[in-house]
Amino acid sequence: QVQLVESGGGSVQPGGSLRLGCAASGYIVQMAWFRQSPGEKREGVASTYIPQGRTYTASSVQGRFTLSQINSTAVHLQMSSLTPQDSGTYYCAASATRPGVWRFTASVYEFWGQGTQVTVSS
């Protein structure tokens, strides 16, 4: 069983920045960040295919969020120009198989972190 350890998160004013980190304890090929607000569906925001270093960003955060691969088991998500709509619980997810076009579908990921809270408020 692969464990995911998340770091970062917290509170920031609109327009501010935060960085989230995620480290896996074992073999994985895909890592992603999802977010969820109360009453909302879990939304994929960024994903990377580890062997090729390819990253994908959802249109809702494109130009503001950057996913970086630190090594074969760790990533950072740099979030900038944050708005209150970016608030929520952010979850790191990982898979030992390549989800391909389903990279932003939560059900294809078998490993999940416990979540870290991001609050954007003035």
At a glance:
This protein is 0% helix and 50% strand.
Show the helix and strand layout.
Blueprint: E1 4-8, E2 10-12, E3 18-24, E4 30-36, E5 43-49, E6 54-57, E7 65-71, E8 74-79, E9 88-95, E10 111-112, E11 116-120
Parallel strand pairs: 2-11
Antiparallel strand pairs: 1-3, 3-8, 4-5, 4-9, 5-6, 7-8, 9-10, 9-11
Structure commentary:
There is one protein chain. The mean pLDDT is 95. The protein has no helices and 11 strands. Strands 2, 4, 5, 6, 9, 10 and 11 form a 7-stranded mixed beta sheet that branches. The protein is mainly beta. A hairpin with a 6-residue loop joins strand 4 (30-36) and strand 5 (43-49).
Q: Element order, helices and strands?
A: EEEEEEEEEEE
Question: Helix content range of the residues, please?
Answer: under 10%
Main sheet, how many strands, which sense, barrel? 7 strands, mixed
Strand residues, percent: over 45%
- General form: globular
User: Radius of gyration in whole Å, from Cα?
Assistant: 13 Å
Unreliable stretches covering 5 or more consecutive residues: none
Mean pLDDT: 95
Structural class: mainly beta
Give the N-to-C terminal Cα separation: 40 Å
- Count the E strands: 11
Number of helical stretches of at least 4 residues: 0
Please give a handful of descriptors for the protein shown.
122 residues; 0% helix
